[in-house]
Design brief:
Rossmann fold, globular, 153 residues
Length: 153
């Protein structure tokens, strides 16, 4: 294990269940499988957003979505937002550096020591709260920065 703690954004979780292509779904499933063996934390927010997205879009039944969310809650350590994370996200959202929900997810992850997030939604190789933003869906192979998170496997 690289020793680097990281988190997964909601889109990785959604794609693992209902990716818009077989390749995207397979990549997301692979990420989650690798992440299970690393220092990966999920935010309560990303698991909650997963449930809301897949049920709203009818990509899974409520029972299927709940079962998957519960599996991930059992599989990974989780972090819930604190008052400080909410305050910080409000500042970032007010400055228009990120959406409130993205800022809250990253602020929450940062509070538990995450130094990277795997996401498709934000600017690849940017950072927020000293958390590196990495897009694991770019290219046919994982980029070196993403591979580094899984290097001991």
């Amino acid at each position: 294990m690289s020793g680097e703690r990281f988190t997964l954004d909601t889109n990785v979780l959604v794609y693992a269940l209902a990716g818009n292509s077989d390749a995207r779904r397979q990549r997301a499933e692979h990420i989650i499988d690798l992440a299970r063996h690393c220092d990966c934390w999920l935010t309560v927010q990303s698991v909650s957003e997963f449930y809301a997205a897949v049920t709203r879009k009818r990509l899974a039944s409520r029972a299927q979505a709940a079962a998957q969310a519960n599996d991930w809650l059992d599989m990974f350590s989780t972090a819930a937002p604190t008052t400080n994370a909410v305050r910080s996200a409000l500042v970032v959202a007010g400055s228009e550096r990120a959406s409130y929900w993205d800022a809250l997810l990253i602020a929450t992850a940062a509070e538990v020591g995450c130094t990277a997030i795997l996401t498709e939604d934000m600017s690849d190789k940017g950072s927020l709260y000293d958390v590196r933003i990495l897009n694991p869906f770019i290219g046919d192979e994982f980029q070196p920065a993403v591979l580094q998170l899984f290097e001991a496997l």
